[in-house]
Model the fold of this input.
Amino acid sequence: MSGGGFKSAKPREINLLFKHGLSPKIFAYKLHISSFLLFVQVVDICGIDQHLPSGKCLMSVSTLTEAAVDFDFVPAAANDNPTGFVTVLEDQPVEGGFDPVFGDVTWQTLISGDKTSSNGLVLGVATFPANGVLHLHRHAPPEFYFCLEGSGVVMMDGQPLHISAGSAVFIPANAEHGVTAGPYGLKFAYGFGEDAFSGIEYQFSA
Done:
């Protein structure tokens, strides 16, 4: 961070006391994508000598405006101003493969806020070899599958659901589910209403 006259202070959690007509909008345009880190650094600009006994900090409108100009944080897994784009499956890296925890499925990510200028949507394609498996697991956000090729069985909360090309599957939040591909393999698109695939926690049953 640059700027003359800023005093060094050890980062600390502290509340800001806004006075003298300070508009929340000045704060909002930079902090709506922020977390504790940006909050602390803005507080740090106050300098120790401006910390009040109550643990609050007075900042003038001009000081806060100067501070906001100096910061330009971009969130890791969400984009506040997404742009339209086209992404091609064959251009995406293949991830996964055989693993004793999740199985022998591979996947390619098409849309995810940690890889693309997007938010609110994760989309990818999963591919299974003949009789391949994705072991039973669950996750907080709901998910969908749309079968593109082959066939298989989706086991959901103990119930087998048979799928083939053209089948769509809705998986409720925290439902236990797993997949076993048919003798000719299986490929399906999957998606979540989340910002990024990296933010989804898979909890495997075994």
In short: Residues 1-56, 73-77 have pLDDT under 50 and may be disordered. Residues 150 and 186 are 4 Å apart (CA to CA). Residues 61-70 form the longest helix (10 residues).
